[in-house]
Please model this.
Amino acid sequence: MEEIRIADLREPQRDADAQALYDLAIAMEVDLDAAGLVASAERRTGLDDFGDPTLLDRLDAQVAAVEADAGLSGLGRLIVRRRLVGLLAARLRFEDFVRRHPEALEVELEPPVVVVGLPRSGTTHLVNVLAADTRLRSLPWWEAVEPTPVLGDGPGRDGVDPRYRRCLADHEAATAVAPLTALMHDRPPWSIEEECELMDLDLCTYVLEWHARVPAWRDHQVTLDHDGHYAFLRRQLQVLSYLRGPNRWVLKCPQHLERLGPLMATFPDATVAFTLRDPVAVLQSAVTMLAYGDRNRRVAVEPDDL
Model:
């Protein structure tokens, strides 16, 4: 296996063109006003019912936590904004789909297989191996990003879902900006990903911590009613199986380690597979990946703070 060392991890080196783009990126002014995020999602979808009024309380908590992160660059704020608007739009489309197809929530789910382990411990590799079994339903990245189809936005003559095309374009753009990320955690549209992306339609996970320094959100999200959030995940899996079977899922999410109670209460017949890796190696890997991403999303790379 080829060894790759990132010699400029702490102090990124850029050519003149890349530096010019970076200077523009960190100087961008990006509005994260919660009401504005909601309005953007509503304009994008033409919908306005999120299904749960407490969702907006969690949005306020996330925005407040991000606003407290003074080291986030303009590009970092733009990434967070795009993510939050995308999650809100996806939630609106999900609730609209359920209103139009209530029978989707009658789908009987078979006992899932759930991969659980620390981040950077091989959970992604394991879930992709298990997902090769066509008897199991899995979550490709293009579907995780946009789980509910846009009404009237079906595949073209080539049969390719437009959500796949949008995901591919985003993947290519992200790879161009940070090419080594693909060696750490590549996310092409077809790769099998984790359902915390689905759960985050309920704004209830740790994913925001990978995008910004948000200790206030970390402390807040552990106090949430995660039984309710896992029930929401189950409803999403029912809808996705209604759209495309089979009904037995293979899932994975490192955050399940903190939520084994709600996980097993929601899926009492689940088979859980744990991955194991030396925690020191896990920490080294996570810090390296975060610090590499920070060269674009933060004003300065500070691996010691990670």
In short: The domain at 16-305 is CATH 3.40.50.300 (Rossmann fold). The beta strands are 110-116, 248-252, 271-274. The longest helix spans residues 74-100. The chain has a mean pLDDT of 92.
